[in-house]
Amino acid sequence: MFRPLVLVLAWLVTALAWAQAYPSKPVRIFVTIGPGAAADVLTRMVGEKLAPRLGQPIVIENRAGAGGNIAADAVAKSAPDGYTLLMASSSTHGANVSVYPKLPFDPIKDFAPVVLVATNPNVLVVPPSLGVNTLAELLALAKQKPGELTYASGGTGTSMHISGEVLAMLGGVKLQHIPFRSTPDAINAALAGEVSMTFASAPTAMSQVKAGRLKALGVTSEKPLSSLPEVAPLAAQGLAGFDVSAWFGLAAPAGTPEPIIKRLNSETLAVLAMPEMREKFVALGMEPLGSTPAEFGAFIRSEIKRLGDVVRVLSGDTAAR
Length: 321
Description:
Blueprint: H1 3-21, E1 27-31, H2 38-54, E2 58-62, H3 69-76, E3 84-89, H4 91-99, E4 111-126, H5 135-144, E5 150-153, H6 159-171, E6 176-179, H7 183-191, E7 197-201, H8 202-210, E8 215-219, E9 245-253, H9 258-272, H10 275-283, E10 287-288, H11 293-320
Parallel strand pairs: 1-2, 1-3, 5-6, 5-7
Antiparallel strand pairs: 3-9, 4-7, 4-8, 4-9, 4-10
Helix pairs in contact: 1-9, 2-9, 4-11, 6-11
C-alpha cells in the first residue's frame, strides 16, 4: 500500500538531483527569426546575463522561416531535458494556430511554458521614394491605387503580417502582403524601395529613420514609445483600436522536469529585474514583463483565442474586399 508513495518520493529525489546538476552543458535557445531582428536581439540580451547565473554558455540558434514554425517544431521534438529552449512568440504560440491549416506541433501540448519575457510594438515605416510623409497621405495613396501598395513581413502569421492586415481593415484600403523569410529581409526590401511599407521593430526603425533611409508614420501600440516619442500611435491617428504588438517568452519541450522549469524561470526573472536590463529594454522600445510558468501558460491560451478571433475577422474582411 506504500509502494505508490515510495515511487513518488523516489521520483522527487531524482528530479531534485537532476535540477541541482542542471545545467552541466551549454543551453541552446532557438530563435524564430534571423540575426538582427527584435527577437534575436532580445534573446541575446537575456542569454548574455542568464549564462553566468546558470554557469553554462547560452547558445543562440536562429531558425527562421514559416512564421517561426520551423524553430518551434525543432524544439517541440527535442529532448525534454532543459538544454533546448524556444524564444516563443505571438506567432508560434498565438496567431499561427489560426493562420496555418495544420501546424507540425501543438503550442499547448508540446511545450512547457517557462516565462513571459517581453512585448515589442512595431513601427509603420515607408521608404522616402514612396512620397508620403503621414499616415493620412499613405491611406489616400492606397485608396487611389487599390491593391497596388505592398507591405513586407517576416512571414505569414507574424505581428508584421497581422499589423498590415489590421491597417488595411481599419484604414479601409486594399494592400498586398509580401511575406519574406525573415524580418531583416522584409526591412531590407523596404529600404530598397521594393515594397511600399513594412512594420519594423523599434530599434531597427530608430536607426533607419535617423539615417533618413525610412520614414516612420506610426507605432502599433496604443501608447507612444518612450524611445520614439515623436511618432504617434496609429490608434491616435484615426485608426481607433489599433493595438498589435509582438510578445516573446521562453518555452521548453513538454515533459521537461518541473524543478528545471522553476530554475529557468527564477533565473530569467532575476535577469529581467536588473536595472541595466530594464534600461536596455526601454531603449529598444520593448517592455520587460515576467511571469510564473502557470501565468505564461494561461497567457498563451488567451492569446491563441484573441489572435484567432483577429485572424478570423481579418480573413472575412479580406474576402469581402
